[in-house]
Design a protein that fits this description.
Blueprint lengths: L14 H25 L4 E4 L5 E3 L7 H15 L2 H8 L2 H9 L8 H16 L2 H15 L2 E2 L4 E2 L10 H7 L2 E3 L6 H11 L2 H17 L10 E4 L6 E5 L11 H18 L2 H18 L21 H17 L2 H21 L29 H14 L8
Helix pairs in contact: 1-14, 2-3, 2-5, 2-14, 5-6, 5-8, 8-9, 10-11, 10-12, 11-12, 12-13, 12-14, 13-14
Length: 393
Amino acid sequence: MSIFADHYFTQEATAIVADDHQAALERCVVRLREQMPVIGLRNPKIGTAGNRWIYCDGPDWVMGFYSGELWLAHQLTGDPAFADAARARRPDFRCVLENQRFRDHDLGFQFSLHSVAEWLMTGDGTARRMGLEAATFLMERFRPEGGYIQAWAPRGPDDRAHAAFVAGRMIADTMQNLALLIWAWRETGIADFRAVALGHARTTARHLVRQDDTAFHTYVFDPASGAPLRGETHQGFADDSCWARGQAWLIHGFAQTYVTTGERDMLDTARRLAAKAEELTGNRRVPVWDYRLPASEPQHVDSSAAAIMASGLYILSGAVESDESNRWRSFADRLVAGLLAECDLTGAPGAQGFLGHGAAHVPAGRVDAMLPYGDYYFMEALMRSLGHDRFFW
């Protein structure tokens, strides 16, 4: 295995943790290399009970995560096979740009990990243009009357119920998509990209983050006036509960937005959310899928929430000093240790992904599965813990 080891060891990590994380990262790269010919040009969507992938049927919000893993593996090894496999997916992403019905707030998930990654890794001009086009479409989803990026798009003129559901709605996940706008601002100097990203982030802090530092999954505004109406859930247990992956999206998103913009309120919000997650996670090493789940409900854990949160905590640790930095690193290390102990599939024969026990959408029955976003953020968290600092967000 050839991973550029001079990039990975940092003083903050103990030798044992660094060795464990490096070994896990190497297993991820081995798994990716083994599975490339099996997966081909398909994009993983969710795992089966046998830890095999079910693939996206056309454009999907998760389609970029496997590309992101391939670009990270290329960065780690220098092997052009990983870059070639990621680049070969370009037609899938072009389809999103060419069809309005496929475009929503998830453009950041899709294009940061595909087109922006390719541009940063190779300098390909077409990839840059695709990233900027996607950023423009994402910016156009901003609703100035309420100060938010509308999450989902209507399915079509015949589905009035869905159109009513998505109108005026923002969601926690979008915080992680803002990086595409920040990249576009830094790339072009066009201030509107930054203004929209920060405008949405501040609306998120004001309405999605509750006074007790837990978070709603979604928030609804009057579509016409922009007046704030109510917080709701879509994938959590209840409107007043705290969906663990939503809290994780927000921690990562606010920490990252602070690092890329220097806006102090982004850091303050990330700290509050992280402290609450630390409290609610308690002695668990992998969070339950909803932090306010009644004891009478099945206690499914969500490995993807742990991976996303750990990666965000490593960002937060690097943005603060001394004891506070150690606090967030320790929490992140504990989450990764839990993933390695309870969810790690990288050494499991026959498994196609990295992590089991992901809770995609518990109310819809999608539980205990491999998830491509869990896998991507697991790889990202391992790399951040080992001192890597080149990513695509």
